[in-house]
């Protein structure tokens, strides 16, 4: 197998996040300083699809949902909380093909949870699309879920697990349908 550099210039943006999404012959991804993009598999045709309102929103890797939409989180942005530039969001948009301007970017949930805000806000890493049709993700210390197919997805948001100290990697779903999370703790044997 050969590795190839498909694209090294992101039109003033930087820090691509992986994994990337391949859909209908194109690669979709996000850049750390606030851009969702599309590029052809051969590396040509870099196209910004949606620029966040501020480069401090910090989007994470995208996930392709069963409904054909791209989902992601921003660590910041949305509702202001504490000294941070927003508590974070869950968003979705259409993975449009060339010539289709109908991106339909939509924030489906804005974090603004109770104390301690650094544990219950600021989502991070990649969402997963569970076999039950719900999206799962994590903040620093909590795993959450949201039903993207609900008429009002925000009304279905809930925390489903709390870590001991912090979540260190993305939540995954096993073949048994259970969620697996890496929790780091200061006490040996106390992890989940």
Rg, Cα atoms, Å: 17 Å
Give the rounded overall mean pLDDT.
86
Can you list the strand order of the major beta sheet? 1-2-3-4
**What fraction of residues sit in β-strands?**
35-45%
Secondary-structure element pattern, one letter each: EEEEEEEEHEEEEEEEE
Largest sheet: 4 strands, antiparallel
Give a description of the structure:
This protein has one helix at about 115-120; strands spanning about 15-25, 25-30, 35-40, 45-50, 65, 70-75, 90-95, 105-110, 125-130, 135-140, 140-145, 160, 165, 170-175, 180, 185. It is an all-beta fold and about 190 residues long. The chain has a 4-stranded antiparallel beta sheet with strand order 1-2-3-4, with no helix packed on it. Strand 9 and strand 10 form a beta hairpin. The longest helix is centred in the middle third of the chain and has 4 residues, at about 115-120. The chain starts with 15 loop residues before the first strand and ends in an 8-residue tail after the last strand. Residues about 190 have low confidence and may be disordered.
Task: Name the features.
36% strand; 1 helix; 192 residues; globular; 4-stranded antiparallel beta sheet; mainly beta
Concise synopsis of the structure shown:
The chain is an all-beta fold and 192 residues long. 2% of the residues lie in helices and 36% in strands.
Write the layout of secondary structure elements.
Layout (H helix, E strand, L loop, with lengths): L15 E8 L2 E6 L3 E6 L6 E5 L11 E2 L5 E5 L14 E5 L12 E5 L6 H4 L3 E6 L5 E4 L3 E5 L11 E5 L3 E2 L4 E2 L5 E2 L2 E2 L8
Antiparallel strand pairs: 1-2, 2-3, 3-4, 5-6, 6-7, 7-8, 9-10, 10-11, 11-12, 13-16, 14-15
